[in-house]
Design brief:
Distance between the termini: 45 Å
Oligomer: single chain
Bound molecules: 2,5-anhydro-1,6-di-O-phosphono-D-mannitol, magnesium ion
Number of domains: 2
Strand order of the largest sheet: 4-3-5-6-7-8-9-10
CATH architecture of the largest domain: 2-Layer Sandwich
CATH class of the largest domain: Alpha Beta
Helix content: 25-40%
Order of helices and strands: HHEEHEEEEHEEEEEHEHEHEEH
Length: about 325
């Protein structure tokens, strides 16, 4: 029964151990309070719309806003983060530690449409070392880094169990939240994605507006009798496919040429986790981790999961 704090004490990290521990503590404290709300369902006032929209014009749910506030609060307490890029904020957030070294990118509550219906949702995060000099004002370039520059990335999945999955680049670890002792306990170390699988995950309601190549791949999935599984919460779909083998897709559609998912907050962290676990991620043309971000809220098509399945899919595109 290894506790997260014990694991972090010796976990390899491109920075000081104290920084890793403080950043992870911030994530964990925010996650614990989100877990508490999620598990009380509608008994606390977390369901429904917050009455506001994010910069992408999407309605913010109450829990989107609550999760974002709690993460920002905890990251400010950590003193390790100079800059936060969040899916829920139009602009970058300067923290109260502008001289610290690290930048935090996050989708505080992914799968918003599933909040009110008691279905799995998640918190996704990603950490970079700033490129601007420590001591100067943090800047946009600190957040617009390629995914291959990440030094810490992970997610918390609030589901039948609440799990924390993360990597610092060496391996992927899964910790499960033990409500009795209020600690995350190691469940699996060095997680590996099966090289191949038989699960494909996408919103097939959009299929007629996918490119012909993607449509041909979907026909191939059916010919081969793969199973379709789609929760509509990226974190949950990714987690299942990571453990069982599969491919998740959010391709470009007629309406959204770049798909729906955000490079900084969703695609990069999951792509790195996939790669460290032996899987892969692409936008259909290049490795997600090699994309140079142009904008904070940039979207990219996403194909992610088992390596052999991704290669098969790409052969159709
Ligand atoms: P969100 O960040 O607003 O929750 O949107 C992202 C979510 C993903 O979790 C999921 O894969 C996707 O949107 C589902 O979209 P769709 O309803 O178009 O299938
Ligand atoms: Mg999201």
């Amino acid at each position: 029964m290894k506790k997260l704090s014990e694991f972090l004490a010796t976990c390899p990290f491109k920075g000081s151990q104290k920084s890793l521990q403080s950043i992870m503590l911030a994530v964990v404290e925010a996650a614990k309070s989100i877990h508490k709300d999620v598990n009380r369902g509608g008994l606390t006032d977390i369901y429904g719309s917050a009455g506001s929209q994010n910069i992408q014009g999407e309605t913010q749910q109450k829990l989107d806003v609550i999760a974002n506030d709690r993460l920002i609060e905890q990251l400010n307490i950590s003193g390790e983060i100079c800059l936060i890029a969040s899916e829920e904020n139009d602009d970058l957030i300067l923290t109260n530690s502008p001289n610290s070294r690290y930048v935090f990118c996050t989708d505080p509550l992914d799968g918003s449409s599933n909040i009110d219906v008691n279905i799995s949702i998640g918190t996704i995060f990603s950490v970079f070392e700033r490129v601007s000099a420590v001591g100067s004002q943090p800047e946009l370039a600190d957040a617009l880094q390629k995914g291959c520059k990440q030094i810490l990335a992970g997610y918390v999945l609030y589901s039948t169990a609440t799990v924390l999955v993360f990597t610092t680049g060496q391996s992927v670890s899964i910790f499960v939240y033990d409500e009795d002792i209020k600690e995350f306990i190691s469940l699996q170390e060095d997680v590996k994605i099966p090289q191949s699988g038989k699960i494909y995950s996408c919103n097939e309601g959009n299929a007629l507006t996918y490119t012909q190549g993607v449509q041909n791949y979907l026909a191939n999935c059916k010919t081969k009798k793969y199973s379709a599984r789609y929760i509509g919460s990226l974190v949950a779909d990714f987690h299942r496919n990571m453990l069982k083998g599969g491919l998740f897709m959010y391709p470009s559609t007629e309406k959204d040429k770049n798909g729906k998912l955000r490079l900084l907050y969703e695609c990069n962290p999951l792509a790195w986790l996939a790669e460290v676990a032996g899987g892969a991620a692409s936008n259909g043309e290049v490795n997600i981790l090699d994309i140079e971000p142009q904008q904070l809220h940039q979207r990219v098509p996403l194909f992610i999961g088992s390596k052999a399945m991704l290669q098969e899919a790409l052969s159709f595109l």
